[in-house]
Design a protein that fits this description.
Shape: globular
Radius of gyration: 26 Å
Largest sheet: 7 strands, antiparallel
Strand content: 15-25%
Number of strands: 23
Number of helices: 13
Length: 684
């Protein structure tokens, strides 16, 4: 699409009851980011109330019409996705504006390939609009969805704002409060789990000010409060707080209470036992039933998982071991998810695998055919594997001649655990019972006997490639090197999920690929580099960290390196910088390597923290050369085996990243505060 053009969604697809709008960009430095937001406007071009402003502090509409989803890594950056259930949008809403904003003085001109895409309920991309010449604006309206009679249309806008997120929201009638003294803070998980009683003004602290609380299960829909109460309603009511664009804080849970057990051999009773699991089939059946049952009983968790697949918000029911006719032999998918919304059903078949069992193409193909014949919307595969962009886990044939199309989606057990951990530790789910259910689910998934441990095997090519690098016999173009690169990418994405779940912050792989590079071509280049250099490299973007967390695995030396480069301050003296850095790292490991980055030179002074603590001046380069920053690194031996044992490569990478963040990065300053005074989320 071109700027200012519009198109009717019904002319592009028959599956536009729910759509996914994705905002994307790429960064030459690999560290560019932005926040998305949505405003629901009436015929007067203004929000009906502050609750019509959806952003990071208010990500979900109570009626399910809007949900800000997680970031998704792409080959050259990231995409922010927004789920719209167009059948649930209130009739008084005339249009929905989709925007994004940057912070800390950054502007969109520093990013490349600013784009918005729209996909229908089966995942087919219907349109794309690229924003050009963004310049120095800090906020952009990418596009808008608006009504024309009974139809919805999309308009490509591309309008920039110099005043950022707060200025954009204010222009559409939102009353913003960014007073740093009254910024919303969440407390520990125990307080977040307490449910408000009827007639009580208190809300769980994990619900941001100005946000509409998530609805209970459908039986209680009538009890959902309106965004604003009328003046004549009975009972005292405190004045609703205005939305704040300062990101809310998240705190780790408090210390658990002391156990009443007489000794360590006593084990707490569990809702989902794992001791009776004897076979892979038992594990698949139990894992499917446990997950689907918790999804129905914890609506926010169920909605978090299904919204990414284009499912509407509504009454959810789940089933296991359903028999469906298919030729001479009935098929029995592991599970079925059904969601009812306005008298319409959204149905997905679920195929589950545990341990290292791969998905079977013929099995998934059969479920796709059954779903197409029966008018179902999706097939969801669930396994320990991690899907890569441009590289499907199973190859299935889709008959484009069919009027009804079925979407194929994949979910990893690591993603399920990640979403549960975010809700338990950082966001809350409304009451103690639901929190306990999620905790039981997470305990089950993490138990060694469940088979739901996430990606846990580097593959059969790992040992031959490692040996080939060691004895210098691995040649470029060897397909085994490509297998290792793909496994490495899966491992990195899983590391991001685990660290992000612990911190309650976004952790994503940062790609530095050239603009327009195909994912398969990029992986082929990395495989060739592995053959020549013998190293695997990855960069992680941790929200509110001062730089990218870099992981390097040198297969020649068997060493792992985790590091971060932090820029030098813009003001002050170099000796002051060095002393301040050493003070901040007072509790960091003594073997931490500190290297001074010098302008125009390959490297500057370096040494361990133990040696530099008494003499910070040793960090300064001779001759007064300009310091551009500092590189902090930890080294450890990497595991050799391909599996998930204590001595494995996967476990050693997980441990290295966790140790580096918890002992080094937590002591560093975050990015400089915004000049506008908007306070960012504090580091956990």
């Amino acid at each position: 699409m071109t700027k200012g053009s519009n198109t009717a969604l019904s002319a592009l697809s028959e599956n536009t009851g729910s759509v996914i709008v994705s905002l994307g960009w790429s960064s030459p430095a690999g560290d560019g980011d932005a926040d998305v937001s949505v405003l629901l406007l009436g015929p007067d071009g203004k929000v009906r109330s502050d609750a019509d402003f959806y952003f990071y502090n208010n990500p979900v509409a109570a009626d399910g019409s809007v949900q800000l989803l997680d970031k998704t890594p792409t080959e050259d950056g990231n995409e922010d996705r927004i789920g719209f259930d167009l059948t649930a949008v209130p009739p008084e809403v005339d249009r929905m504006v989709v925007a994004a904003s940057r912070y800390e003085g950054a502007h969109f001109g520093e990013l490349d390939d600013l784009r918005v895409t729209l996909s229908d309920a089966v995942g087919e991309t219907l349109l794309r609009f690229t924003v050009g010449d963004a310049g120095t604006v800090s906020a952009i309206i990418f596009g808008e969805l608006y009504r024309r009679g009974d139809d919805w249309k999309f308009r490509a806008v591309g309008q920039g704002y110099d005043s950022g997120l707060a200025g954009l929201a204010t222009d559409f009638g939102v009353d913003i409060d960014d007073d740093a003294e009254t910024a919303v803070e969440t407390v520990d998980d125990t307080a977040a789990a307490v449910a408000p009683q009827p007639g009580d003004d208190a809300r769980p602290v994990a619900v941001p000010a100005g946000a509409v609380p998530e609805p209970d299960p459908p039986a209680a829909l009538d009890a959902v409060p309106a965004p604003r109460r009328s003046a004549d309603e009975a009972g005292p009511r405190t004045t609703a707080a205005r939305p704040r664009t300062a990101k809310k804080k998240a705190a780790l849970p408090g210390t658990p209470p002391k156990s009443l057990a007489e000794n360590d051999s006593w084990r707490p009773a569990r809702l989902f036992p794992v001791s009776a699991l004897k076979s892979d089939r038992d594990r698949e059946m139990r894992a499917t039933s446990v997950l689907l049952s918790v999804m129905t009983q914890v609506p926010r968790f169920g909605r978090r998982l299904t919204a990414a697949f284009g499912a509407p918000s509504g009454r959810m029911e789940t089933f296991t071991e359903v028999s469906l006719p298919h030729g001479d032999t009935p098929r029995r998918p592991d599970g079925v998810i059904r969601i009812e919304r306005a008298g319409k059903l959204w149905t997905a078949l679920v195929e589950t695998k545990t341990n290292g069992n791969p998905l079977k193409a013929d099995q998934v193909q059969a479920y796709m055919d059954i779903a197409a014949r029966r008018g179902y919307e999706a097939v969801i595969t669930l396994s320990n594997d991690v899907a890569l962009e441009g590289s499907p886990l199973v190859d299935v044939k889709i008959d484009r001649r069919r009027k009804h199309q079925v979407a194929l989606w994949h979910l990893s057990w690591a993603e399920v655990a990640h979403q549960a951990q975010l809700l338990i530790r950082h966001e809350g789910v409304g009451n103690a019972a639901r929190t306990w259910l999620l905790q039981e689910l997470l305990h089950y998934l993490q138990h060694e006997n469940s088979g739901c441990h996430g990606f846990q095997n580097m593959g059969s090519a790992w040992v031959p490639v490692r040996n080939g690098i060691s004895d210098e016999t691995l040649c470029q173009g060897d397909p085994r090197a490509l297998e290792v690169v793909e496994s490495w990418e899966r491992l990195v994405r899983q590391v991001c999920l685990r660290l992000g779940g612990e911190l309650g912050q976004k952790v994503l792989p940062a790609q530095r690929a050239r603009r327009g590079t195909d994912p398969e071509a990029r992986r082929a280049q990395l495989a060739d580099r592995l053959c020549v250099e013998g190293r695997l490299l990855a960069e992680l973007r941790v929200e509110q960290a001062p730089g990218l967390l870099t992981i390097g695995a040198d297969l020649r030396t068997g060493r792992l390196r985790t590091s971060i480069e932090i820029p030098a301050p813009e003001q002050g003296y170099p000796l002051t910088w060095a002393k301040r850095l050493v003070r901040r790292l007072a509790e960091a490991p003594a073997d931490l390597h500190v290297e001074t980055l010098v302008e125009g030179q390959a490297g500057g002074p370096r040494g361990t923290l133990e040696r530099l603590r008494p003499e910070p001046a040793d960090m300064l380069p001779k001759g007064g050369a300009a310091i551009t920053g500092f590189r902090l690194s930890l080294f450890k031996n990497m595991g050799s085996s391909r599996g998930n044992a204590e001595s494995s490569f996967i476990r050693s990478v997980d441990d290295a990243v966790h140790r580096f963040y918890s002992t080094v990065m937590v002591h560093l300053d975050g990015p400089a505060p915004r000049r506008t005074g908007v306070r960012e989320r504090a580091k956990v």
